[in-house]
Structure formats: C-alpha cells, structure tokens
Amino acid sequence: MTVTIGVWFDFICPFSVMTRKVIRDTLDLTDPHVPVLHHPFEMHPDGIPATGKREYPDQVWERSVLPMAQRLGVAFPATPAPFLPDTGPALRGHHYAARHGLSDTYDARVFDAFFQEQQDIGDLAVLTHLAAQTGLDPGEFAAHLTSPADLARHRAAQEAARSVWGIHTAPTITIGRWRTEGVPDAGRLAEVLAHARTTDRRPTPPARARRQPAPARR
C-alpha cells in the first residue's frame, strides 16, 4: 500500500520547523519516496490581528525551543521574533505554491524569513517578494492572496481541520490512523512507517481524535 504522512503546520511554530527536519531525516534513512502532505493550520485564527501581536510565550523559546532544536540540529536565533504575525496569508500562499509544485521550497523560504530574518510574513508585499524568490509569478501570487474565493476556501479548510480531523495544534502528524502532536520521536516515527506498510489503512478522519499532550501554544 501507499504510505502517506500528513503534517499540519503553522509558519510561526518553531516545532513545525523541527518536525520537517525529523521527518526528512527519518525518510532519508528509511524510504525517501514516502509522500508527505503538508496541511496549513492557523494556530491562532481569531487571536492574532492582521497587524500581528508583540508578545511571545514567556520562557518557551529559551527553555523548550532552543534545547530541542540543538538536539535535532536545527539552527534558531538566540531570541525569537519580536512579534507574531497573522499567518493566514502565508498559509494560503502554500496552496498556491503547491499547485505549481513549489510548496516545499516556498515553505522553507517563509520559515527562514520569519525565524532567521524576522520578516513580517503577514505582509502581502513581503510574501509576494518571497514567492518570487521561490520561482512563483509575483502578480499571480498577489492576486491569489487577495481573492475572496480563495479566502473562503481557506477558512472552510481550517474549519474542516478542526471539526473533521480533530486538529487542535501544530504540528500534528498522521500516518494512517496513527497520530501525534508535537515534534515526533524519530525512532517511533520509523516504527509507525514500517507498521503502516504491512496494513491496508489509509489516512481517515478519526471519529474522535485521541489527544496527546501538546506543546505550549506559541
């Protein structure tokens, strides 16, 4: 059977960056051809205004993000970005990039722009420039982000993630009926992938999502 990894992520979540690294490293050692489907997920759909907010959870960066990142070999600045932008537009840009086969390149560029360069990824001009750097047409990209129809589709997808899939945080990872929240353990991930190859279960929305302890919301 075809094994697929589903990943719900948000661009302001450092644990989403680390999850990308763990999955990539695990697949490099097991099966590089396993498809990974990335699903944008707004962790704060109603909590961050379009102008962003200038606060970061106290001590989360120093006590949780940096130690884990160091163990995994992921580089982050010593201090977090001074603000948390509205990630809705950037996440919608992921869908546009995916249609052009550039979602992985686009995602990596947006993550770097926010965490490494502390750019405002909630700003349309910034996102359009980043999209152009990844090979996307800037005019079409900007039109996509200003489309009311696309905004409606994005909001419907966000609601489905919560009500159908039971997604409540990022990152959330699914392989068949298995799911976990937060950065996955590489060894456990490899075990689940090996087991999934011997079963015939495709990713199915769980009737009742079994919640696991999630990292503090960023």
From TrEMBL:
<dbReference type="GO" id="GO:0016853">
    <property type="term" value="F:isomerase activity"/>
</dbReference>
<dbReference type="InterPro" id="IPR036249">
    <property type="entry name" value="Thioredoxin-like_sf"/>
</dbReference>
<protein>
    <submittedName>
        <fullName>2-hydroxychromene-2-carboxylate isomerase</fullName>
    </submittedName>
</protein>
<keyword id="KW-0413">Isomerase</keyword>
<feature type="domain" description="DSBA-like thioredoxin">
    <location>
        <begin position="4"/>
        <end position="181"/>
    </location>
</feature>
<dbReference type="GO" id="GO:0016491">
    <property type="term" value="F:oxidoreductase activity"/>
</dbReference>
<feature type="region of interest" description="Disordered">
    <location>
        <begin position="196"/>
        <end position="218"/>
    </location>
</feature>
<dbReference type="Pfam" id="PF01323">
    <property type="entry name" value="DSBA"/>
</dbReference>
<dbReference type="InterPro" id="IPR001853">
    <property type="entry name" value="DSBA-like_thioredoxin_dom"/>
</dbReference>
<feature type="compositionally biased region" description="Basic residues">
    <location>
        <begin position="208"/>
        <end position="218"/>
    </location>
</feature>
